[in-house]
Amino acid sequence: MELPLLSIIVFSPAVGALIIMALPKHRHNDIKLVAAIASAISCLGSIYAFFTYDTAAGGIQFEEQFAWIPAIGTSYHVGVDGISLPLVLLTGVIIFAGVLVSWVREQRPREFFALLLLLVTGVFGTFVALDLFLLFVFYELAVLPMYLLIGIWGTTRKEYAAMKLTLYLLIGSSIALAGVIVAYVDAGLGTFDLLKLAEAGFEPGLQTLLFLPIFVGFDVLGGLWPFHTWSPDGHVAAPTAVSMLHAGVLMKMGAYSALRVGVLLLPDAAQVWLPWIVILTVINVVYGATVAFAQRDFKYVIGYSSVSHMGYVTMGVATICALGSSPEGAQLGLSGAVMQMFSHGVMTGIFFAVVGLIYRRTHTRQLPELGGLARKLPLVAAAFIIAGLSSMGMPGLSGFVAEFQVLMGTYKAFPLVAILSLIGVVVTAAYILRFTYMVFFGPLKEEFRGLPPISAAEKFALAFMCIFIVGFGIAPGYILQIIHTGVSEFLAAIQ
Amino acid sequence: MDLALTAWQLSPELVLLVAGLVIMLVDALRPRESDSGWAPYAALAGLAAALVASVSLLGREPDVVLGVLAVDGLSLVAKMLALVAVAIVVLFSGPFMKERASRRGEFYSLLLFATLAISILTGASDIVLVFLGLDFLSIASYVLTGYVRESKRSSEAAIKYFLYGATLSAVMLYGLSLLYGLTGSTSLDGVAAGLAGGSVGNGMILAVLVLVMAGLGFKIAAVPFHQWAPDAYEGASTPVTAFLSLGPKVAGFSVLARFLYFAFPGEVQTNWVALLFALSAVTMTVGNLTAIWQRNIKRLLAYSSIAQAGYLMIGVASLSTGGLVPLLFYLGAYLFANLGAFAVVVAMSRGQSGEDIGDYAGLAQRSPGLALAMLLFLLSLAGIPPLAGFVGKVGLFLSAVDRGLIGLVVIAVVNSVISLYYYLQVVRQMYLLDPQRDEDVAVARPVRATVLVSVVGVVLLGIVPMLLLPLIEQAAGAIIPGS
Known about the structure:
heterodimer; A: two-stranded antiparallel ribbon; 2 strands; B: mainly alpha; globular
């Protein structure tokens, strides 16, 4: 029998969570060790899957399937293709780094790590699920622990942020669920299998009706304007590792599900609605960047920058509606969107890790109160600058590979949109440079002279994430090959 | 007539009757000051025997005993649900009742009589038996509600419950007499035959339906017949509250399903589907919106169970497409989550206090296991995966969409998010706030067992629903309308 690689990746964190719950609560080191091992297994598993995926063969690989609830036609069906595989890798990288930067957590660590790992099982599961019922199970499993993670261990207005986030996301997913149920019944196939439903060919009228509930319902989690307001509040309130996971991975879950379910099941309606959605994404990009520029709280800057960068993802997805007139544009745009999901995920992971490390040492996130930290924390500064340059779209870093493709694709499909969103690029460059200067350069404040250095675990976590930004920036060939395989197949499927 | 066969078919009811009588007699004959710790065990034995009797009847050809009581899939599965529910209530009521009432034999015999009434109602296929069963159940419930005589709240609740119930059962009786007058029959298929052919006007049928729904709506606590529920739930002792949130619902929904589906088939259906659509939408919305403002945990669970009745009515409205399976499965999911939640309430209450949501502050630190269990129960009620409530809800929604009730599904989806808001208010107290007291929560062993059983139920039915579904499917396939 073949090793069920994806199931190991998905359930290793959940098993870790169960073991942690069984440990006595004062054994902090054992708890952390179990969390590190469980996430390392997933991380290594996803790296292995990423590098052994057969790009020549393409299609869905590492597939597993067995019946689950035959009464409603749902099965445990998982597998990855060129679109989901980079996201599985992303999740593996971020959770491992996230556990490492949470090493010093002292307040109720048992519950913290158990919930964190449970959430990650949900995230992995969402990316590999090929059955819609299964997808919803994992999706909500990833959202709910967030309420407790933010509510218990968060900071700034944590209860408000936790409740707002949970309700926003669950309203979105419930509406999407209602849409999917209507599609299921209409198809009359008696199955929740995504691949079978995708071939059902719903009539255009129904598609038009269902597209907004499903696509937008999911993309609430993708930070689509004007449903994004939960996101900055949530990211800021969350503890470091949770912000990393949330902005880094969970938001991708929303965009991914919108694409995988909304566009794949309802391709005709996508042609109708995406030209309207693309307008929202321009607002995402430009408004997000502008508001980020105006912040004084370091973490809010990153929160709004996520809103802005996630705009590129949905923008890239929206180029699909130009499939008829400019297939090349759609191919570029969607590839860029997938690459952007990966690139932004790692980049924002670094951002939130850096904000967290600095806050733990200085006890402030107010930008004017910081300064000159590069002298005390040179490695942290280096990591932040690498991520910052990547988010500005500097060639040689992964952000460039992503945003360049999105903008090229968009230019071919909607020239005006691409030009307008250049404003976002300019503003992003402005706030990244400004805040990098305010935090890391200039005179070192007197009270920061005695800052403790960063620990080995934190160093490793930052370096680990930077490898992917730089590596896929300089040599994007392999990841692009995977993404292009997935995107071509996806576009062929909806044509 | 084969007497042995009839006795076998009636064995669940007979066992309950005998057990109830025995407990009542023994309790009356024993000296006044003697301990009645034996009573719950005797009740459990009676319930277990009735359960065995019901299981033994599974898989047989459906039949109608004495022309009035159906023994079929619906009645057997509903009976089994009710028996399991009451057994769990008995299990965790032991320590609770010991502190609050001196003679308890009577309490358990009343519980068994109420169960007998439910058992009869699950199979009642004659409108006279329906009425008798409902009143039997009501009277037992009134007494149970006011059972803790020392408590003023308990007595007040019982009186309110009684006044409400008496009025609505009179209204229902009026509806049933109209039905008899219109069709000349008291059996359900006789009624169906009388209504067929369009001799009775739609307006008249609707009037009958509304009058009958008043009585059944009272049992399942559907809006606008729900006002008794929060007061009765709050005033009754917690085990009785747990019983009230389940027993009458199982009975009410089996009667509703049998009655509507078999007595009003065919084109008459349009009438009651529309009526149930409206009632279901109003019930869940009012239940959920009112629950938001509750500070007492039992009142909160009362409004939550009103909302749950609304979801269950979706299953009744879409009976013709989805059949009984989604309805019965959801009842099962609701049973474990609700009983579990009430068991936690029992564990948390001390004397007359401990029922405010604020008393749950920091429970996750005082008793992590209890908090986790409560979290799972509430999330299952909210329909969050991977718990039983999610599977149940998806099942209900599927059959409703199939029946063309997309609007109702949308309303239900919005409602589940509203419900999550107030369930999370309890979670917030348990997990986000710091404890106000330091002492550990002492949980008696039977209560702990109940919580554990319910957790297993909620999780297993969510992850491996196939444990229960085949049984329900097989049983739901074997249904007969009536004699």
